[in-house]
Amino acid sequence: MEHVRLVDSLRGVAAALVLVSHVAFFFVSAASVVFGMWAVRGNSGVAIFFVLSAFLLVSPAYIQPFNPSDSRTRDWGSYAIRRAARILPAYWLAFAAVLIVGALAATPDGVGNLRKVLIHLFVGQALFLEQYQAFSQTWSLTTEVTFYLLVPVISWWILRSSRRSTHVLRSGLRALGVVTVLGLMAQAAALAISESGHATAAAALGTSALGHAAWF
């Protein structure tokens, strides 16, 4: 998909919101409770990132049925390489810094065992609920990478549904409705699981790509 400059502005807004949120969690005092309540809601920036990912990566599947003469096929191999190059180098560099600090400064988490390191190396921390205190915000990358892996399947489903329907727009809206309902049901299930005393499983479901399907 061609570059959309306005998306860069939205990314900037989302990044600023997330930064304000994390600063508020650690530094806003009890005396500033009203400001703090608003500041921590900056985590809504994560929702913006998820929405933008879905818009940029899945919209070609919606556009193609309206332009049948476009015979281009998506190269999923190149797609995978681009997604990996966008996230992994910077992520691994940051993770290396966390491990170095953990080894040299004797942080509460330290370096962790091999299992914990490997889980983070492959961006699976939100699935296994493993985290380093200084790296806990990367849970959203697990959700994002999971979505990246699902994009080919989602795109195939949208294209298949549109080909089988004489009403392309209606078919697309129906697909969006199904995904939204699935996401809301996953959040409801996470809440029910949490109230039954299984907080770990609830957290894994609630932060997963399925749990955020409505955002995507």
Task: Please characterize this protein's 3D structure.
The chain is mainly alpha-helical. It has helices spanning 5-27, 33-39, 44-63, 76-104, 114-121, 125-128, 139-163, 168-195, 199-206. Helix 1 (5-27) runs antiparallel to helix 3 and helix 3 packs parallel to helix 7 (139-163). The radius of gyration is 20 Å and the shape is globular. The mean pLDDT is 83.
Would you kindly provide a brief summary of this structure?
The chain has 216 residues and is mainly α. 70% of the residues lie in helices and 0% in strands. The chain is globular.
* Fraction of residues in H or I helices: over 70%
Note the beta-strand portion: under 5%
Mean pLDDT: 83
Tally of individual helices = 9
Q: Order of helices and strands, N to C?
A: HHHHHHHHH
For the secondary structure, the number of strands is 0
* SS class: mainly alpha
Outline, from the CA principal axes?
Answer: globular
Rounded to the nearest angstrom, the radius of gyration is: 20 Å
Poorly predicted parts = none
